[in-house]
Amino acid sequence: MRQMINIREANQHLSKYIRQLQTGDELVITRRGKAVARLTPIIEKKTLNAQQSEALGRLRRLKTKAYHLGGTGIKREELYE
To answer: What is the distance of C-alpha 66 from the center of its chain?
Structure first.
């Protein structure tokens, strides 16, 4: 959820807003009605174990292979006849 607060409110209740950030909320701090800063939670990147890393490598290798699905190639001239 995105919440807009003014800079005075952020200064007075910072610890309350930090707790909200930990639950996934986003805060936009305003000064005189204009947004000046955005506070978002830090999301830790998940680390993969050896088995997951191997599976990801296999998937990436398969993704780069070209599989022939049959049919013939189409030339540009054939498209505009």
So the answer is: 28
Give the Cα separation of 29 and 39 in Å (integer). Answer: 8
List C-alpha distances in Å: 77 to 22, 56, 71, 80, 81: 59, 40, 17, 5, 7
Read off the DSSP letter of residue 74.
-
Rounded to the nearest angstrom, the gap between the alpha carbon of residue 34 and the centroid of all alpha carbons in its chain is: 25
Residue in 28, 15, 55, 22 with CA at minimum distance from that of residue 41: 22
The model's pTM is 0.52
- The segments of the chain whose pLDDT lies below 50 read none
Of residues 79, 10, 76, 8, the one with CA closest to residue 39: 10
Between CA 53 and CA 8 the distance in angstroms is: 47
From the list 40, 22, 43, 30, the residue with the least C-alpha distance to 4 is 30
